[in-house]
Amino acid sequence: MQKELIYEQMNGFLEEDIFSIPKEITIENEFAEGTECSQMYERAYLAKQNLCRRLGQEEDNDIEILISSMENIARLLSLKMYEYGRREH
To answer: What are the sequence ranges of the domains in the chain?
Structure first.
């Protein structure tokens, strides 16, 4: 579906030429270097590393669950917002 492709493009998971949308619509990679999302992601990644270091582990399952759950929540909300926005037009 188009909403999922837009989400994937915004998150930097797709290359620009993978799917076609009208040329008047620009979908930016919100995680490109230097963007606000990129900076927040870097902070989260460093915090994760610090927590694992304090726990004396390379990876921690609970931390991974927290991060993946928040990513899934963000995806769900984004796709629902897309649907709500479509209904407004």
So the answer is: 2-88
